[in-house]
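Checklist before submission:
- one chain only
- standard amino acids only
- sequence pasted in full

Submission:
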Amino acid sequence: MIDGGNRSRKASAAEQTQADHYDEIIVDYEAHYSDPCSREYRRRFFYDPMFQGIDLRGKAVLEALCGSGPTARYLLEQGAVVTGLDISPGAIAMFREKCPDCAAYCRSILDSGFPDESFDCVAVVGALHHLHPHLNDALREVHRILKPGGYLCFMEPHAGSFFDWGRKIWYKFDKYFADNEASIDVNALKREFIGEFDFARTSYGGNLAFLTVYNSLIFRIPVKLKPYYSPLFMWVESVVSKVQWKFDSCFVLAQWRKSAGSRETGCERKGAEVIG
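Returned file contents:
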């Protein structure tokens, strides 16, 4: 069951798989994704561009599928009022320990229990690709709890890249991935949610440092080695990222803004913006 304060419901098979999977790898995951090098990578290559142009001071922000709360800590530094949401009891326990001033709920993003229009921003970092086959349902729930004009900001591995071919094979054999994980098709999502979101910004990135600094767990690189190569590799990534595009990048960054208009009006207004 999913604990939701005054709410509970039976988890779907895919959700339960992900919750069990995360609780199984959480020690290794935290060691590799919470070290200083990974935190600096996320700040430079995820957070700063992902929230660019958004004033978060005093804003109600949900870190959805929050894990132990790495994004929450960045949001708090920007002055946001942060809430964490995750289906994993182990993740929520860590979130509450690391972010004691934030509200935290062990619930599903498919049925969050929050009132309509609760948040100015919903942030998801590297978690939407865990939600197949319920990704569209999760995004509809995000749309419901966002205020009009509120932002959905996310970073995800994306379909249609050179790296995605290798990722599809790796997912099948690596114990650190669950069976339902798959990169997201951003353009398919845009077609599905045209009129409900305005697609304010889309950019692509991730190369040398993404693979070796941020994803040291996947490549079995000892954490103690990361400080020796991370500064150089992040510099290389900052240079290469200036000429990257969809095909040769590892992840997509996006800002979607909840449209204040109807679905029909939004379709007419945004039809030309869905890019292949």
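Reviewer check: The radius of gyration is 18 Å.
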